[in-house]
Write a structure and sequence with these properties.
With 212 residues, this protein is an alpha/beta fold. It contains seven helices and ten strands. The chain is 30% helix and 22% strand.
Length: 212
């Protein structure tokens, strides 16, 4: 990998899971929780370092999950929204000069494939683009890469607009990476979504709004 293009993984798992009714990180997907599934996928692709941000019921989530060697941060201000958790991770990674970008993963979208991570990492290593998003069937999904050059913008972003304002500011610089992975388009916000997330057919799972 080119100098300065080492990729870190960031998993945001701090929210209150209000619509789901129970903590999303602890939802079961096969023999693992959502959070464990994401961590295992990232570790299988040798993404390192890996940062997990917890918040709501952090002690319970940490006790009931195996997060391997991931660095676990607890966002005491998790009710401020997702951006506050991302900013916490950015501050942690900013002290690691060898890291050139972060792969942002959301805990309610746990079924993206290792091949997607490898494709994004390879594209980042080859280009160093400021923002990279996976695309399947003409639609953008998650996870998304933010290069270090965007981190200052993330830290300065208004809380009411979140990371989207950074994506919009760099819209002309976004690199779309085509992947054969329909799961990048799907998440779980409600119990019904969670039930559908167990299936083999991602087309039965409702798609969220495009992240960018």
């Amino acid at each position: 990998m080119a100098a300065g293009r080492r990729l870190a993984g960031v998993v945001l798992a701090a929210g209150g899971s209000t619509r789901m009714g129970s903590p999303k990180p602890l939802l079961v997907l096969g023999a693992r929780t959502y959070l464990e599934a994401i961590v295992e996928t990232l570790q299988s692709t040798r993404i390192d370092p890996l940062v997990v941000v917890l918040g709501h019921e952090a002690d319970t989530v940490r006790r009931k999950t195996n997060l391997g060697t991931a660095t676990v941060l607890v966002n005491a201000d998790w009710q401020a929204g997702m951006l506050s958790s991302l900013q916490l991770a950015v501050r942690e990674l900013s002290a690691r000069p060898q890291v050139g970008g972060l792969l942002l993963c959301l805990v309610d979208s746990p079924r993206f494939r290792g091949g997607t991570v490898r494709a994004l990492a390879a594209a980042f290593a080859a280009t160093g683009a400021p923002l990279l998003v996976p695309v399947h069937g003409g639609r953008r999904g998650h996870p998304v890469i933010f290069a270090r050059s965007t981190w200052g913008d993330l830290l300065a972003a208004p809380s009411d607009r979140g990371a989207r304002v950074v994506v919009e500011a760099h819209r002309s610089d976004v690199l779309e990476v085509q992947v054969d992975d329909p799961w990048i388009l799907h998440d779980a916000d409600t119990p019904a979504d969670h039930l559908r997330m167990q299936g083999d057919n991602p087309d039965s799972v409702p798609a969220p709004t495009d992240p960018a």
